[in-house]
Amino acid sequence: MPYSSLYIHTPFCAAKCDYCAFYSVANASRQMRTRYLDTLASELERVSRNCGALDTIFIGGGTPTHFTVSELSRLMDVFGRFFQFGANHEFTVEGNPGSITREKVRVFLDGGVNRFSIGVQSFSAETRRRIGRDGEVSWVYRAVDALRDQGVDNFNCDLIYGAPLQTTAEWELDLREIVRLEPLHVSTYSLIVEPDTPLALRGVNEADDDLLVEMWQLAEDILLDQCGLERYEVSNFARNGHHCRHNVDIWKGGRFCGAGPAACYFDGTSRWTNPSDLDEWIAQAPPVEDYLPPDKRAVEILATGLRTVAGWQTAEFQQCTGMDIYSLCGDTLNTLADAGLMSVATDGIRLTTRGLLLADYVERELL
Ligand code: SF4
Asked: What would be the CATH architecture of the domain defined by 3-250?
């Protein structure tokens, strides 16, 4: 079966954020970016041989909008040479407020992009400073103006909560400011202090659970009440069903291919990861395979799909994995139901509100 979903990783950023554990390089030279684009062209040509018409494409990073207009034109030309779209495709590009311009938005739109994702993170200069997030708050408004000017309404805003010393009142201000921008999608992530990041090296702690629960609930209240955005996944909200189809497919066990350093792909049996190093990737070091035995694969898919509010229909899970939910882990599901974390019925399962709040715990219990 040809792939219909593609992820492209662009590894360049203007500056490295103190919390970031993604593979990205700050201040790369023009020469390095050209080498990246040369290698990406070859990889996309190879990948395209296994693809049919694409239903979902996601260019993430790093910061895709860090490229110049002419570099982006080249990237989109290469993409257009090798790939075709399915009917009603979704094509998302991530960007940072400081580098989203009208010209770049135009290049993306001309290449078939129809959804944007902006890394806002916080409107508080103090919070941004504490998490080492570069840039001015005013850039967010400028970026949204650039999108609107080009007729784009379909955009997501990423926000971070649980930052050091951040209060519920400050989080509420961030949410109310997002509401004013009227995005169709909002992603809210609690700050994770990843090992070896500057935050971890400074000894910063994650916020305590009670505060995170309060902030998680506040996001739901304000985004639904003021903006009509409904939670459809632990961290994601959308208006009028504008879910990110690319991510929903992956959470529900879909196959996808990838290109770029550190990009992953899943062929239905194994997960493959390209080297997280530009020079190794340019030298065509092979991806690393993580083979998943069928039972393990099915449980992983079960756990990621349960992060969606809709959960799993039993027939849907059977079709996706070839396995019966209850034979696979019925005892654990009943234990989770007894603890009030899961609702179990003959036609499907889903997490309760408490279960969604404790989705990481549920995942650990299932795995
Ligand atoms: S902009 Fe995004 S990818 Fe780049 S360093 Fe910051 S968090 Fe990481």
From this structure: Alpha-Beta Barrel (3.20)
